[in-house]
Amino acid sequence: EGVESQGASGEGTRLTWADAIGAAIEVRRLDDADALVALLAERPRGLVPPLLRAELARARALIAWVRDEPDGVEPGLRSAIDELAALGYPFWLARAQIDLAAWLTERGRSSEAASLVDEAAGTLERLGAAPALARARRVMAPEAEPATP
Hints:
Blueprint (H helix, E strand, L loop, with lengths): L1 H5 L4 H16 L3 H12 L8 H17 L6 H15 L2 H17 L3 H18 L2 H10 L10
Helix pairs in contact: 2-3, 2-4, 3-4, 4-5, 4-6, 5-6, 6-7, 6-8, 7-8
C-alpha cells in the first residue's frame, strides 16, 4: 500500500521496503518477496530512489540465495555494496556486507568474508546497531546460530 499511495520515493517506502523484503525472506514467503521486488522493479529507474535501487539488488540476491540459485547471489550483493558505498549509507552498506560475508562463509570462503565482517562490525559498533552487530559476529562463529537470510 505504501508504494502505491506514496510512490517509491515516499519516506515510508524508503524506510520499510527493505525490512518487508527481509521479513518475507525470513519466513520463506518468496512469492510475497517477489511481489515486493516487482513493486520497484517495474517502475522507471528515475522513480526509484538510489537507496531502494541498491536494496533491490540486495533483495534479488537474497531471494536467489534462498532459492539456491547461486549465480545471482554474489554479483547482486556486490552490486548492492558498491551502490550503498557510493551513496554513503553506512548501516545499509554494513547489512549488505554481512549478507555477502555470510554467503561466502557458507561456501567455505571465510578468508574472503573476514574483511567484510570486520568493516561491517566496525560500522555497526559506531552506529550502536546491536542486532545487526550480533548477526555480523555470528557470521564468523559458525557454531552459533546461522546468519543466513
